[in-house]
């Protein structure tokens, strides 16, 4: 069964390896490196048809270096993922997904945190031109657009942040709420045409700030937004680094109970998490999740979770 995965951090791993290669070691081979949970061979083995690749800049980097870090990751997306793997096809607009051949895998570029462009909207427009199709305003920290879930102030969107959401709407780009503060989330609900939670679970089952409460979940569903379950054990079972596929499915069950059976997807966070669900350690093991889902849901419903729900809720549809 085809799988769409709306979040991974392979670009950061590729960048760290490249910078380290200046002093020791070699570049990671995106095709087959064991260090990459979403390498090309694992995507193939797991039936992944579309993989999202996040640009992520650590908040501790000096502000005047963040744009360079973002460009380095974009360059690696083009040079290491696309150019060296002809069956990886850049999804530059949402209709490109429909043009993928049976043996091709779509690659979507995303941004996790507006820190990369600061308050320079020319840089944001450049990211749109480079093919960024989903933008999360924050990671866990605060920036010039909004507060993240890790900032105790918990403020909403700034004037700049609201302008970014409007530009996302104009460019048919997702606004990702997965790391936003609660107040920021509600500001996005007022403004965004295309909201998504690219990698979040249910707070009612795991009381973690990165998860969404029931009111937020229902608001996402009423806005036709997708919520994509994340594989990080800490967001599945509270205060635990262990989780099973059954534990993850409990979150899917909860989303379904709130009316979202046609708006649930997958956002693994592979290459960005330090612990894993048993049996879901990398992209090659997606069939383990699909097989377990098929014990609880119809074939059509599982196909929806895997990819069809996304196809029906992508911008412009």
Automatic annotation (TrEMBL):
UniProt source species: Planomicrobium stackebrandtii
Q: Which InterPro entries match?
A: Metal_Hydrolase (IPR032466), Pept_M19 (IPR008257)
Q: Does the record carry Hydrolase as a key word?
A: yes
Tell me the Pfam families matching this sequence: Peptidase_M19
PANTHER family named among the record's database cross-references: DIPEPTIDASE, MICROSOMAL DIPEPTIDASE
Q: Name one GO molecular function term.
A: dipeptidase activity
Q: Look up the EC number in the record and give it.
A: 3.4.13.19
Give the record's keywords alphabetically: Dipeptidase, Hydrolase, Protease
Concerning CDD domains, the annotation shows:
rDP_like
Q: Does the keyword Protease apply?
A: yes
Can you name this protein?
Membrane dipeptidase
* Highest taxon of the lineage: Bacteria
Taxon lineage: Bacteria, Bacillati, Bacillota, Bacilli, Bacillales
């Amino acid at each position: 069964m085809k799988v769409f995965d709306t979040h991974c951090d392979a670009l950061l791993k590729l960048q760290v390896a490249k910078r380290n290669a200046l002093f020791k070691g070699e570049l990671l081979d995106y095709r087959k490196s064991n260090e990459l949970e979403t390498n090309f061979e694992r995507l193939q083995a797991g039936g992944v048809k579309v993989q999202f690749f996040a640009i992520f800049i650590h908040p501790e980097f000096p502000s005047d270096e963040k744009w360079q870090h973002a460009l380095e990751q974009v360059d690696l997306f083009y040079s290491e993922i696309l150019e060296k793997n002809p069956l990886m096809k850049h999804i530059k607009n949402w209709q490109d997904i429909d043009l993928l051949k049976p043996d091709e895998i779509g690659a979507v570029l995303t941004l996790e945190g507006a820190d990369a462009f600061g308050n320079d909207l020319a840089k944001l427009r450049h990211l749109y031109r480079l093919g960024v199709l989903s933008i999360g305003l924050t990671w866990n920290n605060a920036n010039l657009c909004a507060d993240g879930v890790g900032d105790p102030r918990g403020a909403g969107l700034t004037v700049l942040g609201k302008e970014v959401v409007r530009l996302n709407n104009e460019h048919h780009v997702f606004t990702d709420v997965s790391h936003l503060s609660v107040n920021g989330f509600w500001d996005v609900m007022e403004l965004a045409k295309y909201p998504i939670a690219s990698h979040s679970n249910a707070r009612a089952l795991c009381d973690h700030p990165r998860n969404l409460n029931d009111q937020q979940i229902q608001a996402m569903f009423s806005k036709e937004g997708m919520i994509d379950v994340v594989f990080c054990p800490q967001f599945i079972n509270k205060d635990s680094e262990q989780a099973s596929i059954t534990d993850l499915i409990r979150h899917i069950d909860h989303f379904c109970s709130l009316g979202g059976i046609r708006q649930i997807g997958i956002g693994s966070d592979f290459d960005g998490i330090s612990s894993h669900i048993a049996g879901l350690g990398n992209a090659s093991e997606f069939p383990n999740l699909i097989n377990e889902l098929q014990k609880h849901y119809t074939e059509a419903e599982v196909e929806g979770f895997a990819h069809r729900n996304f196809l029906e809720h992508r911008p412009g549809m």
